[in-house]
Write a structure and sequence with these properties.
alpha/beta; Rossmann fold; four-stranded parallel sheet; 6 helices; globular; protein tyrosine phosphatase activity
């Protein structure tokens, strides 16, 4: 089983959106017996909470389930439990690398999946309110990521 972990700051906007979108794509491609997805935050403010209302509304509008998704904080064990650790921005890459066990781990910055995009970080809609733009980026990036996983691991 190939495993993917998306990481953002609070684990209520970007990373749970990416978790839900990638899960949806995995089911559509009938790979749910081969790839599992989770998300976590580098901060601990929202542990146990559902995704942000803006994330839930957007996912509902696209008929993408977020069932079972709740915020948790990333931990050192995640570096050994997941094949792909994907951070939404530079500060989360730095936060991950500062955790015990995170120094030598290959952490992918999400926007590196989309080299033709001008943005180099996934904007945080908790502050910007622009959930549609974040969804557009996440949808595109998850498609690229899933193709990469199929080529590299399946």
């Amino acid at each position: 089983m190939i495993s993917v972990l998306f990481v953002c700051l609070g684990n209520i906007c970007r990373s749970p959106m990416a978790e839900a979108v990638l899960r949806h794509k995995i089911v559509q491609k009938r790979l749910d017996d081969k790839v599992k997805v989770d998300s976590a935050g580098t901060g601990d403010w929202h542990i146990g909470k559902l995704p942000h209302e803006g994330t839930r509304k957007l996912l509902d509008s696209w008929r993408i389930s977020y069932e079972g998704v709740s915020a948790r904080q990333v931990n050192s064990q995640d570096f050994t439990d997941f094949d792909y650790v994907i951070a939404m921005d530079d500060s989360n890459v730095e936060n991950l690398r500062s955790l015990p066990g995170g120094e030598g781990v290959d952490i992918i910055k999400f926007m590196d999946l989309l080299p033709d995009e001008i943005l180099r970080e996934v904007p945080d809609p908790y502050f910007t309110g622009n959930f549609d733009e974040v969804y557009r980026l996440i949808d595109l990036g998850c498609e690229v990521l899933l193709d990469r996983i199929v080529k590299e691991k399946l």
